[in-house]
Amino acid sequence: MNALQKSLKTAAIAIAIASVSGFAAAAERGITDTSIKIGNIGPFSGKAAMFNPLNYGSVAYMRYVNDMGGVFGRKFDVVLGDTACAQAKGIAAAKKMIYDEKVFMITVNPCSGVAMAIKPTLVKEGMPWSGVSANPKITGSVGSGGTSAPPKYMFHVTPNGYFSGMTMGKFIMTKPNTKKIAIVAHTNDWARGYCDPAIDYIESQGAEVVLDTAMERGSTDATAQVLQIKTKGVDGVLGCLYQPELVVLLKAAHKYKLNTPIIGALGADFGQVVQQVGNAKAVNGVFFQGHLYKDKIGSPALEWGKQILLKYLTKDELPKTGDPTHFYYFGLFNGIGVVEGFRRAGRDLTRDTYIKAIETLSDYDNNISAGRVTITPQQHVGVSDMYFNGLDKDGNEVIFSSWGKALH
Hints:
Layout: H1 3-7, H2 9-16, E1 35-42, H3 53-67, E2 75-82, H4 87-101, E3 105-108, H5 112-125, E4 129-131, E5 154-155, H6 161-173, E6 180-185, H7 189-204, E7 208-214, H8 223-232, E8 236-240, H9 243-255, E9 262-264, H10 270-277, H11 280-283, E10 287-291, H12 303-312, H13 326-345, H14 351-358, E11 387-391, E12 397-402, E13 405-406
Parallel strand pairs: 1-2, 1-3, 3-4, 4-5, 6-7, 6-8, 8-9, 9-10
Antiparallel strand pairs: 10-11, 11-12, 12-13
């Protein structure tokens, strides 16, 4: 057994020892004696294609599992579908997966608008869904402010916007003497899914959100927002923004000498934001973002993940330059949880046995995430906490468990 296999020995052994003898072919849609067909949808074209590493990370893990022999003798047949992060195209892609490809489940699905648009069809058809879309309404549950049970077949093995937003609020409130906060957010459900829980937490701690201002998608100038913030004398800014607009905000903040930390949501890749801002003074000690992993990208603790990505993705699926970025690991994170559900469901696989298996995840250590995964029949969001990335004054990446407290 090589070093990579040893690092995942628990999952690998469970997968490799499974026997297929003595079983009849399954009647369940998307399942044969030797395969499990998975629909993997996302923005493979258009402006949002920057998110497709989320899809490829999950693909890489399933290819790795296939190389190890599959799960109880079945290998993953992954079918990719392009949504372009557009609702109409997303609905078409999902229906093709369900009715033409006849997949067992749909997974990854970046872009909350698409996830919400296809949700009615998924619920109607009883189609399992595990995605990385952040909108809390997708898997709406007690933890995200609702009172009813979550949709039976829909779940997150990663955090959703509710828990990610809560951790943004918690992080800024560990900064000493924090009293006043500003919010800059898109006017969509994705952004409010982050910022509203953050606001609730901030206010519960006795601080005040003194400004909640909009920044629309496609904005190329944040002068107005930054000047508004400066008049309020805030102690921190939460940016519930996608990557292009977050970059614009950081550049404007530096230009107008807004000397306060800016905390970004998970709609951006930390390393890419730093690179695109292109100015150390605009990010060092200023820009922070939620970090889903147990250590920083490139650390020995995540080397096994890097090797999976490099081995099982093609040249076209990997970055044009450099190592796999944060979003690849995010997709890997999702893939591990999805596969664990199949491992726990056993050989007698149906949609119901799969969901029951997912709901047994309790304090599950996936060897990658900052928080462990727990899913129950009442709570279909698996992770409720994370660390934060930042750069020190010298530009060195640091992972923080709270303000000023480095993980190592």
